[in-house]
Amino acid sequence: MTKNRTDIKTNLKARIDQALGRVDADLVIRAVRMLNVATGEVERTDIAICGDKIVGTYDDNYRGRREIDGSDLFAVPGFIDTHVHPESSLVQPGEFDRLALSRGTTTAIADPHEISNVLGIAGLRYFLEAAEGTAMDLRINLSSCVPASALETSGARLDADDLVSLRDHPKVIGLAEFMNFPGVLAKDEAVLDKLAAFDGWHIDGHSPLLGGRPLNAYLACGVRNCHEVTHRDEALEKIRKGMQVLIRDGSVTRDVEALADLIDMTRSPFLAFCTDDRTPLHIAEDGHIDYLIRTAIAKGAPMAATYRTATWSAARGFGLTDRGLLAPGYLADIVLLSDLESCQVAGVIKSGRPVDAETFAGRRLPAPIGYGSIKRAPVDAALFRTPCAGPTGPVIGLVPQKIITEALVLSLPYTGGERHADPGQDVLKVAVLERHGHNGNVGRGFVKGFGITDGAIASSFGHDAHNIIVVGTNDEDMALAVNRLIELQGGFVAVVGGQVRQDLPLPIAGLMSDWPAEDVERRLHALREQLRAMGCHLDEPFVQLAFLPLSMIPHLKITDRGLVDADHHHLITLDGDRVTVG
């Protein structure tokens, strides 16, 4: 709600009096070592706070109604996650809020792309309502690509008018990652309609490996950033062309180590950090944006430039000019650290108030939506048969800690006119089953790299349409895993020898749990141990699985419509032939 002029003047008078020391400040952090991300200096100072604003720095004589002894601590601005799908944390927005804010992430810019692909505009409205109740400042970019491409069956569709209807919500920044860059370059009318509707607004990018004139054309349409950069040369071209590179480190995508040497005081205004997709188990074990900061510093990135990247640069890239710096007039989002180099969070202050249990107790959050979203009848093992012309054909090759895949051609066991899984070559069957009740499609293929020697795993979390995806050594276990998933109405399932060994229910749109984050973390840990017993040693196998249907990311993917040549954006058969789509 917009404050009236009288209220604003009252607040300004209080700030003036407290800044001048005429009256005690609402809160003072005393004698803290403050990192100035503008200059790179670390100096001991009091930080005086009035309401939600900083009113005093570089002074050691402030007094406060409440005081925090900062003599053994460092103070830095609150961290900003510039691109995140909170659904990928597998918990409700309020639980994501509790996890990330406690690690120093005071602002997160969310794209509710996952729930929007399942529930459409109802999913966007749910997140906008949640954003009004979270303790962190959760901002929303409206999901631009629902569905992400014509090569999959999504649960919903959002057109330009749907997005415009929500554009003026106070939590909205602009348009979320514009994944369909082939549609932009092809001048697709529906694509251009969305770009035209948000002309002059912030538009997030998504352009893996795009360069040269195609990148020029994409940027000329108003796109401002990219979080899909995985190589230094790609990053440099994008920075040189004015694009902000959002350095990502999620539960699978680990790009900080590859890009840390880009970070310096010159380039940092054109950089930021994001997590994109990160589970509660990963947050508990490693952290959130704090993990990205310590990783970059450990790889040799200058400390001040790294913290600037995580704060001021991130804020400026999204038009949030009221935060990102510890200075008078800026929002009092402050992270207190016991150690600057290792980014050890000792305390968090959000909008002038220390974060504690009471911070989360008083929130007003919406009831979850999206129960009953798995509209698929139980299946039998025959569904996963894979008739082929011969033993040789395309196989998706996993790349650990990457969402880019390899396009392999391998020979597999071949009997009765069918190609079969070959655990000896580390090749499993993979299938994607449409689950939104639209057409019952099934896409079939093979994937190398999971390490599973016996059994199957299935998930209802599969970017971006979130159909059911299953991989396995045999058809019977694959069918059992899918049927357990249907019974749970979404989640993760691990099956061996005709028995369900572990599962995690995700009944909210088939994406999120209605359990506390700690319970989800424990179940994820049990699933990890089960997968290791099955031979899989990927850090986050279910997250890696979720990216196999991501048809906008090179090189070979699979959706409910079949195998996708993601380099050329068309379907191919199990024998590698191009499919003509009518």
Task: Walk me through what this model shows.
- With 582 residues, the chain is of the alpha/beta class.
- Helices cover 27% and strands 26% of the residues.
- Strands 1, 2, 3, 4, 5, 14, 15 and 16 form an eight-stranded mixed beta sheet that branches. Strands 18-17-22-21-24-23-25-26 form an eight-stranded mixed beta sheet, with helices on both faces. Strands 6-7-8-9-10 form a five-stranded parallel beta sheet, with helices on one face.
- Strand 15 and strand 16 form a beta hairpin.
- Helix 3 crosses helix 4 (121-131) and helix 12 (289-298) packs antiparallel against helix 13.
Counting helices, strands and paired strands, the structural category is alpha/beta
Mean pLDDT: 96
Please give the share of residues in helix: 25-40%
Number of helices: 18
Strand residues, percent:
25-35%
Unreliable parts: none
* Principal-axes shape call: elongated
The end-to-end distance, rounded to whole angstroms, is 50 Å
Counted beta strands: 29
**Over the alpha carbons, how many angstroms does the gyration radius reach?**
24 Å
Largest sheet: 8 strands, mixed
Secondary structure layout plus pairing:
Blueprint (H helix, E strand, L loop, with lengths): L4 H16 L4 E11 L6 E9 L2 E4 L7 E6 L4 E4 L1 E6 L8 H9 L3 E6 L2 H7 L1 H11 L5 E6 L17 H5 L7 E7 L2 H5 L3 H9 L4 E4 L6 H8 L5 E2 L5 H9 L3 E5 L7 H4 L11 E4 L5 H6 L3 H10 L4 H8 L1 H6 L16 E6 L4 E7 L2 E2 L2 H5 L30 E6 L8 E6 L2 E2 L2 E2 L7 E7 L8 E7 L7 E4 L8 E5 L2 H14 L2 E6 L2 E7 L11 H17 L7 H6 L9 E4 L2 E4 L4 E3 L10
Parallel strand pairs: 1-4, 1-5, 6-7, 7-8, 8-9, 9-10, 11-12, 12-13, 17-22
Antiparallel strand pairs: 1-2, 2-3, 5-14, 14-15, 15-16, 17-18, 19-20, 21-22, 21-24, 23-24, 23-25, 25-26, 27-28, 28-29
